[in-house]
Request: fold
Amino acid sequence: MYPFVRKNPFVIVVIFLVSGILLANLVTGSAIVYYFMAMALLLVGIVMQIQNSVIQSLVILISICLFGISRTLQQDQYPDSHHYAEWMSQGENECIGVVKEPGRNKYIVDVELINQKEVHGKLLLFSGIPLIPGDRICFKSKFYPIQSPRNPYVFDARRYYGHKQIWYQTYLNQAPLRLNGHGGLYVWMHHTRNNFDRILHKHLITENEYALVKALLLGDKRELGTELKNAYADTGAMHVLAVSGLHVGVLYLILLFILKRLIPFSGAGKVLRSILILSGLWFFVYLVGAPNSAWRATLMFSLFEIGSLVSRSYYPVNTLSLAAVLLLLLDPNTLYDVGFQLSFLAVLGIVTCQREIQGFWKISNPVGFKVWQMISLSIAAQVFIFPLIFYYFHQFAVYFWLSGILAVPLAFIVILAGVLTLLFSWFPYVGVLFGYLLLGSSYVLNAWIFAVQQLPGMVVEGIWINGSQLALLFIISLGFVFLIKQVTYSRIRFFLLSIIIFLITLNIDRWKTLRQRYLIAYSERSDPCVDLVIGEEVYPLLRNYPNDQIPWEIKETRDALGIRRPGRRATGKNLFEQRGFWATGNYKIFLQDSLFAGLHLFPNVDYFFLNNAHELGQINSPQTFTKNLIGWKITKNYRDRLMAGAPIQLHDMYWDGTLIIDLNK
Reply:
């Protein structure tokens, strides 16, 4: 272990820095306090002559952890007195800002002025009118806070954008006033990208191929149809569509191939070659709009190139860790970016175990060797990212290894053909020739992905794991890497023990699922929906959707709770149901229907559901037969009248969000 640390010191640095970023969620206090603590410990570790080098190293690493806490607290400070949130009005706001990050009809804007007050802060802006990154725009609109999700187990936009220090959003219905929309690097790159787009569109006459190449070369995925995106997602080839390490790597190889033949491999020539390669890579980053994925990948390749330039000893894991340290120092919240996690862990898997996996099978046939090389590359990339795929996406593409056999080399050909098409577009015959190559290679790539998608059992869905199980899967991945590096009894035991513990946690979850009893009132915009969950069965109380029409939010919740089948509406030992009355365990529930009558004789129930706004007004004193009233679009007048009476718990599914009641308590 010690030789590994000596060769890869930044691995330990990034571990302690990440620990500090995570600990920042648990501590309180000022960022400046932790900063001075970190500096004091760092000086102690560097200046003082500590006899024990291990203690000295530990002191320095603790200071790095404290610096991670300080940097995160500084970054996560809620809007200060100069933030636009402190000066915006409840109505429309006059705003001036600079467009930064473009998306599909959404942009991030750096706010400079609001209601004639100089401010700062980021704003999420939705607009059907295309905006150019770098534009300084003036507009008037109302700002809305980014809301947390109304249902559980779904994407939390407030948390996601909160990590980016974005807490408000706005919508533009008309074009903003451009104050200086014809200058700056972003604007020049935008015009260059538009020129390249016109060239590609001239050569690519089919819709899917044009959308694919535009995503690969220009980083613009707006033309990708749902069918095409689903095909790449189902086959585990979605990384091909995102401008990331694959695309930067292909461009790196192209530049390296050309410059090796133009510039002599000498001292000064090697430096010049590296400068030109880095310039080309960073030009590409800003050409595609400088998305985070391309920025990260280019930083990694830049460090790899600089490392190979200044040192003969090349340690890719150390270089990868250094790239992570730099990115996390710039923005600690990058740690929570799923793309950051996936890209770094995929590269980590490739550099740590691809060679060993490839060595499992010795193939002398050149074609077979290349095929196995592609498969081993895909497997190595999955070693550290499959736990994240389980955790975030709750599915797994079974044929990722099969799609990767041709997807990666074909993507290489598409990018190469695209670059050559753009370079030689001014030479009619040569440009047309490369255009045909581009069209043909992109067509074959799409056809291959669609063919793999047709295979049975292509995706395993409904995979839900918790945080502790995620950590166990990472431990299993580490155990696998250690084992293939060197097979020893202790490493076999560690690997098998990790798997056994993980399987035990799965069985514990299974036992909890069989015992669960929940009453769930969903916050659906269209119709009220209530589920009674008993074990692995679900009983839809208000509305029973067909399997192919279940709203996504409801399906996600049922999958997360391990629901395997719908329950049959029949009275059993665990359930009683009769004309709107439901009983399970010690709880009684009533769902109002058209037969509702005789309130003065109505029995007491634990939960009373109202799903008819007309009959809602006819119930004057529900407190006489229930303590918990759950309704749908309850009017303010009725709410006020209800609250004026005896105490009652009132929940509106439409306005208050999903309500989950544990019936085992």
About this structure: The chain has a mean pLDDT of 82. The first strand starts at residue 92 and ends at 102. The longest helix spans residues 489-515.
